């Protein structure tokens, strides 16, 4: 029995994601022919205009790729420049960087959980609408977000495009007293974060399991501002080998480049990957919260990423409190002298591994730049998940199917501004 | 009926519209005063226009966007541009001084898949704009001031003097006079709260030129403290490159 009728579903301008994109699904009869995650955000050509800039400039310039995760760009940029110049920034300055990064994780994850993702589970178009019925919950989310931003504002000067990060460290480091001022807010945030895990763990999750490889940084601690890339099949490689291990390729329907593992295939980076590869390095309360929430050794349902994000907020808050407790102000920066060479930097942005590579000439000017953001790495995996989702639900009408696709995309917290460009969802059925 | 607010995005990083969501203490109150009728980053419910106030983020850099902004203008009673991309073309306007074809081939293996214009231009180059809010990113307090002003039917009270005023009011030591640190504060539009000097670095001009900027004089100063010409040029060629390029080096009349 074949109904060889063609269906096309189009989603124009996906909502509650960062940036601009669309999706097109083409179905012929009972088979999904094509899924295109169409990232049409205009290209901005950062890698081109970085050439000729001074080695001190990438932290300020690349933060402008993404207003949601500017700290991630600043951290990967600093690490890449420092590695080109043969300098390692660790110890107390590394701890301060991690603290600032914790602020971004708390703020970005709270934004995604409460304002972008939770409305899907509770059946509202936005957090503002959701607040009419669940005001205390939305207020808790906003308060968490504010606590994360307070860390970035103190260490960075402002929450979006912070000004205080420089190659080698910071322009100015905080006094212990200033840092202690964050503690009451963080203590409250710890309670709120644990309550968030309990809340989202009780959501009703659609059934979808994927089999992608995971890629995340690993090391002695749960990865934020440093680590060694590793995949679930066990292969670890140096950050400097990233471009040999991960191939970028272009597809006609996206202004963001796709990625695949040279020795594997499509893969996923982000909270689910970090959790699968680093679960035992979570802070004590985060580890316990993950177990109580029923997360096993890994989680392969994209919709449950909201639980992992909540667990990561617990970790980031506990880690922030730990750094503050042992803080003694270091000199604000390590001097970094420019030299000709190539440097690589990888850190864990809220949405996953963010890689930067720069080549410097003897004058300290950039001769080339490569930036691989998490969302572009995840595009192939997201498209594959959508294919499976649609294939299993072809009996749904177009409206229901379109909405299921949008929810799936949202569960990855795609940052299309980062990837290059956002989403117009189209489903074509033939 | 509550006034309708719309938020639009063109080529940008999302940071300026995120500033609205970063008003954690005011967001729900604001949502009680206005109908958030079109704000894709925050809501999947869209109410049709016309809109009382449209906030526009981002620059025009593709043929499709050059058409889309005309439609946004048509359905907006007040159109306020937010941030350096929308008011000056943003950092992506560095292409205006380069060969965009070469740029495209550096980033993309198959440049023919990617549609782009040779220049990244501010919204005001395409449609009339009612108010321009500066900054990379915009300041939360200034955003709330503009929204409050339009809700109350008055003009926004946004000063256009240089960062130096704010810096003095904040009680900062002048980083250029005291430490010889290059600073664009004397010619940069106020609004950020003089954050950079407060953190011991020079202003890097993310709010663009102030009213009547004397960049010629500042360049002499920068030269006197030892800044070489290429470094000086790079300082002005960032997030508001087109706006600073248009400023003559002669002292303002």
From TrEMBL, chain A:
Keywords: Metal-binding, Nickel, Oxidoreductase. Its cofactor is Ni(2+). InterPro entries: Ni-dep_hyd_lsu, Ni-dep_hyd_lsu_Ni_BS, NiFe-Hase_large. It holds the Pfam family NiFeSe_Hases. SUPFAM superfamilies: HydB/Nqo4-like (SSF56762). PANTHER family: COENZYME F420 HYDROGENASE, SUBUNIT ALPHA, F420-NON-REDUCING HYDROGENASE VHU SUBUNIT A. Belongs to the [NiFe]/[NiFeSe] hydrogenase large subunit family. This is Ni/Fe hydrogenase subunit alpha.
From TrEMBL, chain B:
Transmembrane segments: none annotated. It comes from the Bacteria. InterPro entries: Hydrogenase_assoc-protein, NADH_UbQ_OxRdtase-like_20kDa, NiFe_Hase_small_N_sf. Signal peptide: none annotated. Keywords: Oxidoreductase. Residues 13-149 form the NADH:ubiquinone oxidoreductase-like 20kDa subunit domain. This is Oxidoreductase.
